[in-house]
Write a structure and sequence with these properties.
It is built from 29 helices and 25 strands. By secondary structure, the protein is of the alpha+beta class. Helix 16 (532-542) packs antiparallel against helix 17 (548-559).
């Protein structure tokens, strides 16, 4: 007895059957693998895009804006910690209790908020006082220091020269000849021309106090977010308007343990206590929950001290002092604020828009992928049909046939789906979550389900012709088609009525995602109902001609069920997805360009620093500059409407200068001549929110002056990013702007000049800190944002996937019809039909319905953006206040559609030649058997 397995056993026969025609099964496995890969990789890639976009948003904000910050005019409640800290003993005795309470606030934060924060910090900085230099004249620079206290001074700073400041010898209110000691950052000491060891004097609450610079320091980590809370700690601020001596202001650090001696006379104190945000720990998936937790935390009060009052004696009070003591308060209950919540809300809205667009686009390829899987499973089934029907004729039970189909389906689907999912995970490392795995599981079970579903078609008897009677639809089909069209119409109406409201809250909107596929199904119904009408007329016309091929081809196209719902759906959805993606890309690109033009408002905008009159004159004389207009002031103001106040921004400009700069621009502001008329009430232009607020007001004034609203030029202004603004002419600037020092200049360049090059020349005139912005440069930055790049990549991937899937669907449709052709074409060949005629027959098989489906797909692709983009807010990508209009770049659409048709035609040509020619004798034998 041998150990060889019988090749006629059930298992052996199944293996021989698989080996006899492996290509269809391999092709189906590849389809499942690719579908599972996309199902798992796509959501992980989108999550990665959201994370990169959030990181970019956070990187665009200094730490002082996204940290959780408390500001108080009172100092710490002095006392040691209860459990101990890592502060020096003398510093812990003063600041330990405060740090311990601040750490308890952080510990009370819920997760995941607590994990995105770091160890709390506190710094107290008093108001500036002038440090006078002995012998300085009235025209000498003024140097002002801000006494500061940092309990972790020696951790955050490194001593470069000199010594750390010594503790105060006693309360500051007691006059003494011994100076107090400070340290300054090295750039500050250099700017103030203050060498180590030099003594200067300050006038503190009427008491002259000597100050000695004991040392100079530098930041231990200049990139630490700590320094964004203290802009004058490492570098002095300089005010130099050319009309008065320059004024330098910077923080001067004292010994932190000396706070109790200094506290009673700390003028204009601001103590910042903050919990730093670790931007690297903020995950996009946690953004909605973090935003909610931050909102709750910001709305509650936290206890940082007792808020007790301390009585301070004033020994030897100077003349004029009528109270023998002072009372100062320590910090008590405080509130924390942060800009992180706004950043997260914006990020969530942008992510929702990306998800909505990609879900809308992905629903089409998913539908095509399912259609292709159906066709692929049908090809596999047709290859197995003869053997299974032979087994049925020889007595195989239906359960045995089902088991064979189920086993082959599982052997195809499960390993392929697992491999595709594994490749997807490997291709997107570092992204947590299991999104898409359930879709991959569905794809894994699709082949066995489709194969088993076709088992009832197996019959040991002669099969009837499937093309006879196919043109008479039943009542069930009519009901289903009517229901599809009705649901598609209802989805469109709901989207148009709802608009963008609630998009950020619902994330991936099922209605928004399903609408394109529903419309595609409705288009398929229309195609399948309409295309037989002209095709039938063509058949009748061709029947009167002598040529066989046109008549036979058109008749087979009309009667053969191979042109059913599945291939039509694949073509309609594939073409519509390609067109829709192209239109969305054009809309996004044009929206970014238009919004950038509006935000810049000129060929070049110079901003970032105050500009003097001499600099303005030099800018106007710069080569290739045609005209300039300064924005003389953008000042916050309070608008009074019937006794109610509303915050707004007053923009002061010169109407004639603006008109010269913006002449001929499509986005030019319409500035009426009456704007420059002096008088009362003041003529103004207002933004839409302000216009709405003052529309019903009877008594409206701004800084005590009445207003005459001349109009609302636009929802966007190149002069400010705020949405509430009022434009006044320079002749009416008083009292809205105390000084007219421009910080923004709009520039018109000569025809043919390079705005970027002119901007560089103007920045050199404006000095350090100035920046030049052009519409093209701003648009490039907006397009380079991770979420915009991710959306663009997703749309391009959808075009490629839809094109390939459509081509594959047509190829599989031809493979499904191959057995019928193998019976027909050899017989026709014996009657004299040549290879050219055979190719024409194949072309007629899918050509008419494909042509109609392509037309329907183009029309659908143009309709979907108009309907679906009503529910998507793209302003987060364009940077504008106005939603971009749907833009059709028909040249680009034509290129994409042509490429899709070419790829599909090539795939169909390859599929038509699979299997080669079949002899007439074999065809006759098949006809007798089938």
């Amino acid at each position: 007895m041998t150990g060889r397995r019988s090749r006629t056993s059930a298992v052996g026969l199944a293996l021989r059957q698989l080996a006899a025609g492996p290509l269809p099964s391999i092709a189906l496995a590849v389809l499942v693998c690719a579908s599972a890969f996309l199902a798992v990789a796509a959501p992980r890639a989108v999550a990665d895009v959201h994370t990169e976009a959030l990181e970019a948003r956070l990187a665009g904000h200094p730490a002082s804006e996204i940290d959780l910050v408390s500001r108080s005019p009172m100092g710490p409640d002095v006392g040691p910690s209860a459990a101990g800290t890592d502060l020096p003993a003398d510093v812990d005795a003063v600041w330990g209790g405060h740090e311990e309470r601040l750490a308890a606030v952080r510990a009370s934060l819920p997760e995941p908020l607590r994990s995105t924060t770091g160890d709390p910090m506190t710094v107290a900085v008093s108001g500036p006082v002038q440090a006078r230099v002995d012998g300085a004249g009235p025209g000498s620079p003024k140097y002002r220091i801000q006494p500061g206290f940092d309990p972790r001074l020696r951790t955050h700073l490194v001593l470069v020269d000199g010594e750390w400041p010594a503790p105060l010898p006693g309360p500051i209110q007691e006059p003494r000849e011994e100076p107090i000691e400070i340290v300054l950052a090295m750039p500050v000491a250099e700017a103030m021309a203050w060498p180590v060891g030099e003594v200067r004097s300050i006038d503190y609450t009427g008491i002259e106090v000597l100050v000695r610079l004991s040392g100079v320091v530098e930041a231990a980590d200049p990139a630490d977010g700590l320094w964004t809370h203290l802009p004058t700690a490492l570098r002095a601020s300089v005010v130099d308007n050319g009309l008065a001596p320059p004024e330098y202001t910077a923080v001067a650090w004292l010994d932190p343990a000396s706070w109790p001696e200094f506290a009673p006379f700390a003028l204009a104190l601001e103590m910042q206590s903050w919990i730093p945000t670790d931007a690297a720990a903020v995950r996009a998936s946690d953004a909605p929950e973090l935003a909610a937790q931050l909102g709750e935390f910001s709305s509650t009060s936290q206890v940082l001290g007792s808020g007790r009052w301390i009585e301070v004696d004033v020994p030897e009070a100077p003349p004029g002092t009528f109270v023998p003591y002072l009372m100062v308060s320590t910090v008590g209950t405080v509130g924390f604020t942060t800009g992180l919540r706004d950043v997260l809300v914006d990020a969530v809205a942008a992510a929702a828009a990306v998800d909505a667009v990609l879900a809308m686009i992905a629903s089409g390829p998913i539908g095509v992928a399912i259609a292709v899987l159906v066709l692929g499973a049908r090809v596999v089934f047709e290859r197995r049909r003869t053997g299974l029907e032979l087994a049925a004729a020889r007595g195989a039970a239906p359960a045995r046939l089902h088991t064979v189909l189920l086993a082959e389906g599982l052997a195809i689907g499960v390993p392929a789906a697992a491999l595709g999912a594994a490749i997807a995970v490997a291709a997107t490392p570092g992204v947590p979550g299991i999104a898409g795995w359930w879709i991959a599981a569905v794809f894994a079970l699709t082949p066995p389900a489709l194969l088993v579903a076709r088992a009832p078609e197996l019959s040991p008897l002669r099969r009837a012709r499937a093309d006879l009677g196919a043109s008479r639809p039943g009542r069930a089909r009519v009901v289903v088609e009517a229901l599809v069209v009705l649901v598609a119409a209802v989805s469109c109406v709901l989207l148009l009525q709802r608009g963008t409201a609630g998009a950020a809250e619902v994330g991936v909107d099922p209605l928004l995602a399903a609408a394109p596929l529903l419309l595609a199904l409705a288009a398929c119904v229309l195609v399948l109902r309409v295309y037989p009408l002209p095709l039938g007329a063509l058949v009748r016309r061709m029947s009167r001609r002598r040529s066989l091929v046109p008549f036979l081809g058109s008749a087979r196209a009309l009667r053969d069920p191979s042109a059913g719902l599945v291939p039509v759906l694949a073509v309609v959805v594939g073409v519509s997805v390609a067109v829709t993606s192209t239109v969305v890309l054009s809309t996004l690109d044009r929206g970014i360009a238009t919004a950038s033009e509006r935000r810049v408002g000129a060929d070049v905008a110079i901003s970032g620093v105050p500009v003097t009159r001499d600099q303005l004159a030099e800018m106007a004389d710069t080569s290739r500059v045609e005209a300039i207009t300064p924005v003389y002031s953008t000042t916050p103001a309070q608008l009074d409407i019937d006794g109610r106040t509303r915050s707004t921004t007053v923009i002061v400009l010169d109407r004639e200068e603006v008109e010269r700069v913006q002449a001929g621009r499509a986005d030019a502001l319409a500035l009426p001549e009456a704007l420059s008329a002096a008088g009362e009430p003041v003529p103004v232009l207002v933004s839409p929110p302000v216009a709405e607020a003052v529309a019903d007001g009877e008594d409206v004034d701004l800084e005590g002056r009445g207003l005459e609203v001349l109009g609302t030029p636009s929802a966007e202004s190149p002069f400010t990013s705020r949405d509430a603004w009022i434009i006044v002419d320079r002749v009416n600037a008083d009292p809205f702007a105390a000084t007219l020092v421009p910080r923004q200049v709009l520039v018109r360049v000569e025809s043919g000049a390079d705005p970027a090059a002119v901007g560089d020349a103007l920045v050199a005139i404006a000095g350090d800190g100035a920046r030049a912005t052009t519409a093209e440069g701003l648009a490039d930055r907006l397009r380079a944002q991770p979420d915009a790049e991710g959306l663009r990549a997703g749309l391009i991937a959808a075009i490629a996937a839809a094109t390939l899937l459509t081509a594959l669907a047509l190829a599989l449709t031809l493979l499904v019809g191959q057995p019928a052709r193998e019976r027909l074409l050899p017989l026709l060949a014996t009657l004299g039909l040549g290879r050219r005629g055979e190719r024409a027959i194949v072309a007629w098989e899918i050509g008419p319905v494909t042509a109609v489906a392509i037309v329907a797909g183009v029309a659908l692709g143009a309709l979907v953006p108009v309907v679906v983009l009503q529910g998507v807010d793209l302003r987060g990508f364009t940077g504008g206040a106005i939603a971009p209009a749907v833009t059709f770049d028909w040249a680009l659409v034509g290129v994409v559609v042509a490429a899709s048709v070419i790829v599909s035609a090539a795939a169909a040509a390859v599929a038509a030649h699979v299997g080669g020619r079949v002899g007439a004798a074999r065809a006759m034998r098949k006809e007798e058997e089938g």
